[in-house]
Backbone:
């Protein structure tokens, strides 16, 4: 493996995304990307005995789907890499415990997806693993109770709020065997511009996305125009507008290629989605379900996904601490013919 | 922290301020007035029914009226309606009896999976607790002031 600059890995063997599995919750299944998801949950409310069990079910089902599509058994997977938003990563560890995987749990909030794919790509590229499965899950009700209020509590949320996505997305990454490959990853630094309001994730995370995208371009000597699409994790509509201003301040205009997973997953007119989606599953559902499919089917050749994470906890926000954020970027490209 | 970083943070916060949608104060106030007032009107109607048909005195009708309002709020919470109603109504849905019942019912529902004692027992007052704590504390100080004032004069 080669490196570029201070923080970019270049995967010379070009690990391939063999297959993806996506499971979308009800509201996500009613959104604009509905047709792109493998499994759509249509039932409202709790399916199992707790929201936590439901969330574990999401990642289990996404994993089963991804394995099935890759025509692999769990034994063929060397490592499972991923995480979720629950304390102690119970979604990831409990959800996958029956597969017998060797598991590497990660936490970087909503940027966990790109961190997982970056490390998965690294393992495959360096030969430390032949095949890995990477991804995340999140559930609006487990996130609400951990980070905010009980689900049924009647408090009014501001327009800057974002809705935690219910769903899970997993990707099987191996040596070869697909026309979608992972070619580079840029690991982000923690950025803190002093935003304290936990209803303003978009504003807290926009500078992290900006730094990581700039770092990638700087490290690799490329330009915004070298990508067909640059998707940030979950800045939402408001964070996205802030990010565009940050680019404009540097005299850069990303144009239509700059988009955001939190913006794509819901239509603005859906109920209580506010500024858009967030949560560890937001970028994995959108990337694995939709963005990679656009590479596979020939619409795009080369994209960057820069998922963003707000690294707060309820304790730190009650202690009036500001919200440090992070963003990791991964580059996906098409190799070979359109499928 | 050097001044350059400080300036950068300050100018960023000004950028964020420009993008933050203004709170719809007028809309929120009107809705809160209508909904909060509406809930009180329903309460008044319930009380009047107790007085007229239940044979209660106006004072005695207070307790069963509160019980009915709590029941209505808890039913709405249980059916998953109160939170949506709260998003629409804002402060209007926070009127004491129904709002308080919602905080307790929602906390109880949320914690049901952790069992009756540690779950519901331990979390029932999670949101309502501060209201009770500061209600009691302020009542104590108000009573203390009243006691001192009445005994000095």
Residues:
């Amino acid at each position: 493996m080669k490196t570029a600059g201070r923080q970019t890995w270049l995967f010379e063997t070009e690990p391939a995304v063999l297959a993806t599995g996506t499971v979308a919750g009800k509201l996500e299944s009613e959104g604009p990307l509905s047709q792109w998801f493998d499994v759509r949950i249509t039932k409202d409310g709790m399916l199992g005995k707790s929201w936590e069990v439901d969330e574990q079910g999401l990642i289990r089902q996404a994993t089963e789907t991804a394995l099935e599509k890759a025509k692999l058994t769990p034994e063929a997977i060397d490592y499972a890499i991923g995480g979720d938003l629950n304390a102690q990563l119970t979604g990831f560890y409990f959800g996958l415990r029956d597969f017998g995987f060797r598991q590497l749990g990660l936490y970087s909030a909503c940027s966990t997806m790109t961190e997982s794919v970056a490390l998965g790509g690294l393992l495959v590229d360096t030969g430390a693993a032949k095949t890995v499965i990477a991804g995340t899950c999140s559930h609006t009700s487990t996130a609400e109770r951990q980070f905010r209020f009980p689900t049924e509590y009647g408090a009014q949320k501001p327009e800057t709020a974002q809705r935690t996505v219910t769903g899970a997305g997993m990707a099987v990454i191996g040596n070869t065997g697909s026309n979608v490959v992972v070619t580079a990853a840029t690991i982000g630094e923690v950025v803190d511009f002093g935003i304290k309001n936990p209803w303003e994730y978009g504003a807290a995370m926009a500078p992290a996305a900006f730094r990581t995208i700039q770092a990638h371009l700087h490290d690799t000597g490329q330009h915004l125009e070298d990508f067909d699409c640059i998707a940030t994790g979950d800045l939402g509509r408001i964070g996205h507008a802030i990010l565009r201003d940050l680019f404009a301040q540097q005299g850069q205009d990303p144009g239509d290629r700059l988009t955001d997973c939190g913006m794509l997953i819901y239509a603005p007119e859906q109920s209580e989605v506010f500024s858009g989606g967030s949560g560890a599953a937001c970028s994995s559902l959108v990337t694995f379900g939709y963005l990679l499919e656009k590479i596979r089917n020939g619409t795009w050749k080369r994209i960057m996904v820069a998922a963003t994470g707000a690294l707060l906890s309820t304790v730190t926000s009650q202690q009036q601490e500001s919200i440090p954020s992070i963003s990791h970027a991964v580059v996906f490209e098409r190799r070979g013919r359109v499928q | 922290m050097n001044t350059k970083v400080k300036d950068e943070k300050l100018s960023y916060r000004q950028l964020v301020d420009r993008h933050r949608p203004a709170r719809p104060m007028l809309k929120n106030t009107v809705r809160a007035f209508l909904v909060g007032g509406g809930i009180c009107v329903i309460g008044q109607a319930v009380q009047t029914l107790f007085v007229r048909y239940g044979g209660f005195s106006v004072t005695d009708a207070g307790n069963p009226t509160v019980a009915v309002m709590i029941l209505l709020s808890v039913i709405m919470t249980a059916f998953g309606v109160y939170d949506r109603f709260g998003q629409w109504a804002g402060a209007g849905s926070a009127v004491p009896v129904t709002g308080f019942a919602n905080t307790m019912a929602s906390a109880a529902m949320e914690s049901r999976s952790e069992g009756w004692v540690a779950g519901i027992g331990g979390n029932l007052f999670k949101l309502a607790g501060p209201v009770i704590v500061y209600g009691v504390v302020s009542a104590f100080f108000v009573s203390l002031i009243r006691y001192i004032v009445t005994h000095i004069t």
The first strand of chain A starts at residue 2 and ends at 4. The longest helix of chain A spans residues 51-70.
